[in-house]
Amino acid sequence: MEIDPIMERRAQEERLAKEKNLRTIMYALIAVAVILAAALAYIWSQKSALISDLEEEKQDLTEQIESLQSDYANLSSDYDSINSQLDTSRAEVADLIERIKKTEATNRAMIRKYQKELGTLRSIMRNYIVQIDSLNTLNHKLTADAAAARKEAAASRAQSRQLSEQVEALSGQVAAGSVIKARGIRIEAYNSSDKVTDRSSRVTRLLTSLSLVENDLAPRGPVVVYIRVKDPDGIILTNSNRTSFQFNGETMVASASRRVDYEGKEVDLSIYLNDIPSYVKGVYTVEAYTEQSRLGSAELMLR
To answer: For the chain, which terminal residue's Cβ has fewer other Cβ atoms within 10 angstroms, N or C?
Structure first.
């Protein structure tokens, strides 16, 4: 049987056309693959650059906090109340460093939170420096004044008139020394099992503890100590037993209070704050007062 040349030519043309179509499709697929590979390479490059930037940001934050830790380590005072607060802040800095090291750099929400905590700890340290400088200045002045008064009194009784004037000038400072002061102020959170906790969701009450220091110049008798506990937004926490007191001519709301008998000797006391519906994460601040003076403050971090 003879093969029709026309049919054979047509079959050959169809084969060539199919091969051409296959080559076209193949080239198109190759082009698409190249484009996809380039796109993936670009995306990977961008992702790697972003991760690198975040790692640098975390490293910079860690170095800042470690520098602050060194500053806290080098800061000291001659006052027990400030030293106690410094110890608390040093522990908070160390805890913050550990938390940052355990946090992935890509967790931007936590990194931002740690940056805010760093700012708070820096602000607290500035306050410590101001307090220490102020107390040192006052202490040096009082020491110098007292030394000068003793020297003049021993040098000549004939100068008694002048000495009386100097003693009168110092009487205001002696009156300031008769004010009751406190040390070791701290605030802790307790759960329903009466155990210390730092989990805001588990807190059922807060405990503020402090010591009224020994002062032979202070008047004896009942003393009411008031506490004002502020939440992270600066709102005073109160319950149905809220009270108020007068301080520097102003009526101030107190979260809680306690009356103690002060006889010039050191008195340890604790004040509970109960029946607060809920607590949020952040830094809580307690300020302690009598109606004559501000005794000090402390902070508590709840997570």
So the answer is: N
